[in-house]
């Protein structure tokens, strides 16, 4: 074959590939395969379509690139897959109120245009990825009511656009990093209560703080003990 024919063949292959290949659609199909969907919410997520823009709860921009995934309260169970990190123009990832388990993929930190990351009320475990500190457009990070462990990454202090940071009701340990508590001074609403955090960096001013409760209980027991000794002596 002459090089001209070969080049023609090459162009034809490229043309076919660019018609058939949509990496965002394929990433969402990989995610669908990681989900159990008893209400059949994702029925329209069909890989034979050229783009995912007409699928249920998917919104695209004028370039047919995905900017919103709105799947809150849809009875979905399953995992968040690393392939979600391919959705380079994603601004809203709304998957609250499902039964997602497993950990938050590091690749979510690639979503540089993300404005809102709502993972609250699921069953997510593992650590909050350090990579989430790269989400410089993020305004809302709501992770409450999960089972996240480990400490709060100091990198979250880089999220200077953050308006709401809700990490409450998880199993987080350690102390609140000063980088993160400094966000409060620049106007971020922070709730870290109902975790297993040390110290009093808990700014929600809650009296139901477990540490306080334990101290009060201990004091009460010591007082009772002293009182009983007193009574038995006299
Ligand atoms: C996807 O759409 C094609 C063509 O409309 C249809 O034949 C196929 O059954 C659909 N697949 C799923 C999983 O719904
Ligand atoms: C979720 O499941 C419950 C019970 O199975 C059902 O009543 C409800 O309609 C479902 N919600 C959605 C959004 O499909
Ligand atoms: C969360 O997962 C645990 C097991 O890992 C399970 O026992 C529990 O029922 C789940 N919670 C919800 C709300 O689905
Ligand atoms: C983010 O924060 C961490 C720790 O506070 C710091 O080491 C890192 O250089 C910061 N990264 C960026 C991209 O600003
Ligand atoms: C902060 O988190 C706690 C525990 O989840 C919750 O009870 C409380 O209502 C939250 N505070 C606000 C102001 O939302
Ligand atoms: C914080 O706690 C103090 C002492 O219990 C209380 O007087 C104050 O009203 C609380 N502030 C808020 C905003 O709840």
Provide a compact summary of the structure.
26% of the residues lie in helices and 14% in strands.
Biggest sheet record: 7 strands, mixed
Number of separate domains: 2
Strand content: 5-15%
- Rg, rounded, reads 24 Å
User: Which cofactors or ions or other ligands sit in this model?
Assistant: 2-acetamido-2-deoxy-beta-D-glucopyranose
The number of helical segments is 4
- The helical percent reads 25-40%
How many runs of DSSP E, i.e. beta strands?
11
| CATH architectural grouping of the largest domain | Alpha-Beta Horseshoe
Oligomer kind:
single chain
What is the highest CATH level, the class of the largest domain?
Answer: Alpha Beta
Strand order of the largest sheet: 2-3-5-7-9-10-11
The ordered H/E elements are HHEEEEEEEEEEHEH
CATH topology term of the largest domain:
Leucine-rich repeat, LRR (right-handed beta-alpha superhelix)
Q: What is the 3D form?
A: globular
Span of the ends, CA to CA: 112 Å
Fold and architecture overview:
The chain is of the alpha/beta class and 234 residues long. It has two domains: 24-203, Ribonuclease Inhibitor (Leucine-rich repeat, LRR (right-handed beta-alpha superhelix)); 207-234. Helices cover 26% and strands 14% of the residues. The strands form two sheets. Strands 2-3-5-7-9-10-11 form a seven-stranded mixed beta sheet, covered by helices on one side. Strands 1-4-6-8 form a four-stranded mixed beta sheet. Mean pLDDT is 86; it is low at 14-19 and 200-220. The site of one 2-acetamido-2-deoxy-beta-D-glucopyranose has 3 residues, from strand 6. Residues 67-169 form the Disease resistance R13L4/SHOC-2-like LRR domain. It holds the Pfam family LRR_14. Residues 22-61 form the Leucine-rich repeat-containing N-terminal plant-type domain.
């Amino acid at each position: 074959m002459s090089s001209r024919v070969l080049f023609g063949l090459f162009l034809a292959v490229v043309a076919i590939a660019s018609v058939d290949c949509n990496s965002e659609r394929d990433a969402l199909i990989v995610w669908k395969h990681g989900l159990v969907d008893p209400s059949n919410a994702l029925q329209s997520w069909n890989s034979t379509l050229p783009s995912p823009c007409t699928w249920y709860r998917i919104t695209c921009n004028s370039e047919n690139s995905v900017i919103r995934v709105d799947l809150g309260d849809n009875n979905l169970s399953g995992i968040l897959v690393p392939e979600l990190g391919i959705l380079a123009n994603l601004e809203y990832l709304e998957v609250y109120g499902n039964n997602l388990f497993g950990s938050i993929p590091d690749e979510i930190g690639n979503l540089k245009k993300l404005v809102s990351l709502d993972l609250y009320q699921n069953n997510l475990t593992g650590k909050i990825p350090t990579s989430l500190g790269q989400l410089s457009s993020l305004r809302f990070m709501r992770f409450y009511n999960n089972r996240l462990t480990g400490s709060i990454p100091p990198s979250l202090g880089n999220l200077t656009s953050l308006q709401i940071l809700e990490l409450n009701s998880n199993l987080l340990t350690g102390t609140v990093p000063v980088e993160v508590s400094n966000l409060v001074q620049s106007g971020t609403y922070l709730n870290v209560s109902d975790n297993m955090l040390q110290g009093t960096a808990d700014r929600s001013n809650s009296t139901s703080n477990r540490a306080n409760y334990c101290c009060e209980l201990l004091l009460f027991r010591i007082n009772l003990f002293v009182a009983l000794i007193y009574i038995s002596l006299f």
